[in-house]
Amino acid sequence: MDFAHIVTLPMENFKMDGSIFNIRDEAIRHLNGSITIERQMTIENFGSRIVASMHLKIPEDLKGNSLDTRKLSANHIQITILYLKAMIAAPFVTSTFGNSSEQFSSLSIGLGIGIINSFLHDRFTNINITIIEIEKTMVDIAKKYFGLIEDDRQRVIISDGMKYLRENKKLIFDAIFIDACYSQFKDGLSCPVKEFCEYDNMNLIKSNLKENGVVIVSLLLTSPKKTAEVLVCGGKNFPDEETFKAKTTKVFEELGFGSPPIVTEDFTMWY
């Protein structure tokens, strides 16, 4: 352990999809005197395990031991969760998000607290971002506690993901992120929700991709075996296994993500 003191500050509890969610701030004073503060979301159905978190920006002129964390803004650039690093990195690994002078578009199905889209929005000005989230409560929480904003480069649509795609078949994207999850395991499955495991629906998603587009799916299940992976699916220009592994390491370094995940032969990133 490298910390000397931890303080947990409850912020809000809310109910959604039959589950109790908790928002809290955790402040850590490390042995070297530095401080980190993380805003966390837990779900009681998962044993109060942290399911999402963001670091908060610490004032440079911090003095004394008193700090109102409610006034701190979220740090969208510092990602703490490995599977989300893998999802963000994927379009860069496949060169889908290539030349910085070009304009790209992304679709996120499932908002969570907004980690993927907020990173892309704050780090890159050439990515047009659309987010589909079925729960308005989640959108409100992301705005209130995690700094989600809507502007001319980022918008949130409250809708069912597949319904949105069926009604907007002419829309095409460079990257589609699927991080739509149940708040509890259902028949051994948490991510993605079952609709995104159906063949016809995956074909529909494919039709909403550009030629060099990529789909990134978060997988979390306990049956038939425990699996926690990010699945990356692309088109004809998809890199071979060795290139994929090498580019994953390079992209992780460029994005400031540290050590990359383990990449398997079926183009999943294991975490």
From TrEMBL:
Protein name (record): Spermidine synthase
Top-level taxonomic group: Eukaryota
Molecular function as annotated in GO: spermidine synthase activity
GO cellular component terms, semicolon-separated: cytosol
GO biological process, one term: spermidine biosynthetic process
Pfam families: Spermine_synth
